[in-house]
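Subject: mismatched residue count in predicted assembly?

I count 491 residues in my input, but I want to confirm that the predicted structure covers every chain. Input:
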Amino acid sequence: MGRLNDCVAVVTHGTSGIGAGISERLRTEGAVVVATDALPATRDAALRVAASAVERHGRIDILVNGADEQTDFVPLALKREAVGSSAQSVLWMMQAVYPTMKAQATGRIVNLVSVFGDSLNRQLADTVAASEAVKSLTRSAAEEWGQFGILVNALAPAADTATFQAMRESASDAVDAMVAGSPMGRMGDPVEDIGGAVMLLVGESGRFLTGHVLYADGGQHLTPTPFEAVVPID
Amino acid sequence: MSELSLRGKVVVVTGGSEGIGFGIVTKLVMEGAKVVFCSRSAEKGAKATASLLDAGLDADYVQADVGNRQQAERVVAIAIERYGRVDGLINNAQAEWVWVPVEDKTEDAYAKAMSSGFHASRWLMNAVLPHFLRQGGGRIINFGSRRAVYGAKLSAEYNATKEAIRGLSWSAAREWGRHNVTVNVICPACESAGTVAYMKDNPEMAARTLLAIPMRRLGKPVEDLGALVAGLMTDDARFITGQTFFADGGLHLKRPE
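Triage response: the counts match. Full output below for your records.
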């Protein structure tokens, strides 16, 4: 018996990394999970994902938008885009599930965002700006759709993300020290820790929570990230 | 049994006789936790105990003014005496504010606000810590306020106390995280006997308030606030610390009037 029996969840970017962990957790809790490999590249692609989920399973209770973290890891002086493409994809996906959730008078949306959004970063300007845009879209959706029973929150996970892996490759000692110095002294497990945080937001506990940016990070957001050691400026 | 099983867990709730606190006590007991709750008024405590019993629920009431250090510590001592452990602490107690401007606040108003809210919270946090360390972890939930986060007018002593509680919470989250102790803050917007009566008497104000809430309703003590607290006591929340949960249907997206 699961806590999400009879629920249908769409997880974009949900077949690898943290997204896969969240998909696994939602399945374990009893949900039917429709996971995609990537965020939709077009509005039509987003509409197709939602339409296919409804066609096959009749409803959409949960949308989790994974973070694609696309960046070229170059300094700000060389960045081409102010905002990465994922913000647009997240908007399209939220719009795609909206009519279904509105008709159901219930729905939960969780948008994964970067832990670096409201602190410093180096060489990640485009992807972090996209993540900040997603936070703002989250608040807009919370405000406009709350009256229809659709709750929208953002979740910033500290786990083995692509960005984190790249940081670890460039300066493993500094990154290990950062993790050790964070309050809980470890990174999150995608299924238990990040999946658990998603369960808080999509389950009974999240009935009255909307418009938040929550961290599932063992308190890492309270501590410094040593970008000066990880990405030295030439 | 519903979805958030708390069987085997022992939770202390302050200010638990009415309102949000009573909703939290009720939900925690419904989920199988052993709950030790306190309040200043033994009369209200007896009433709360009776309504729990009517619903087939059982919790331990302790009469205590947590604004007094010895009495606050005694609540934890009683939980340990009865159950041998404590897994959660919910610091909900807080004196009401007096509606006057900053320059007219009295020393007494500040003393009451700080002792019932801030000092009580830290005394109780310190009292549960040794037990959390012995057990390998624990959960603390303190209560803040959207009024305080944004500086609402005419409640300076309350606002200052609530923000002091948040500051204390982040320090404890950082220092105690390595012991698997999580510390989070809830800022609620919830129905109480007071708000329901006030909204009935002031329908225009009530309509404006509800319109400011994206979900167009106030929270329910058991179903919303209780469920959030119960969820934060489960394994789902084991990696979440140092955060503010606005359990307010999105009201926090707007600044208070």
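Strands of chain A lie at 8-12, 32-35, 62-65, 107-112, 150-157, 213-216. Marking this ticket as 'not a bug'.
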